[in-house]
Amino acid sequence: MLEFLPPRLRQAVRHINGNLLYELRIRADKPLLANYGGSFRFLGAAGIAPSADGALYPTAQEVADALFAASGHCVYAVEDQIRRGFVTAEGGVRIGIAGTYVYEKGQVLSVRAVTSLCVRIPHEIRGCAETVYEACLSDALRPTLLISPPGCGKTTLLRDLCRLLGERTLYNVLVCDERGEIAAGEVGAQSDVIRFCDKKTAFSSGIRALRPDVIVTDELYGEDFAAVRRAVRSGVCVLASAHLADCSDVPQGIFSCCVLLDGIGQVRECKRLCG
Fold it and tell me: What fold does the segment set 130-272 form as a domain?
């Protein structure tokens, strides 16, 4: 899954338990960090290091090489993703990009002089969505929003909800996978997947052409909520996630359930908003 990493970094990762690796922070000329088991640790040539002194320091060339390899050795093929600040590598690994954004006529043209990569490794945790399924979906479909700060397992939980719907119902599920992360694991036998498409387009074309009972999508932002509202009003249940801190921040009149996460598979609050 992380074969795009330069040899020195790839070798370091092989010294740790991949099941506990959630994220890598690769910054040029700065210590390599790993989110390992839920907390950030320094990563050295022989695995976890006690301090920055024992960490690897990726070079600017290694940062560039990692991005080039993750793009399938063809940056032009993923230009649209790069303009939006990420690349999705094989296996649903999402790589956030920091560097110099180049604009033309008010639009992002490209990202150059890349200095940092945030590598997020997807995990499939079967059963992590059981609590949410029983509270929000077991007796009826209810539009449900998962909320938390970044990195608390919203995508992992959405993926498991897709699997549960596929195992326990015959609903047609449309996965709008804008960043290619949700469908990196099992999403159920009744799922149709639209990848790398903005939510407005995916929702409108998907509803017309694929007749979903449920739409599953990740990371809603301000402009996305209008598309969700239209889908719900048309009779389609939407399961989604957003970076919000509290259920009181959820826009009113769209979702029937709000789920606040504390971490991967950890539900702090599961609240019925209406219905």
Answer: Rossmann fold (3.40.50)
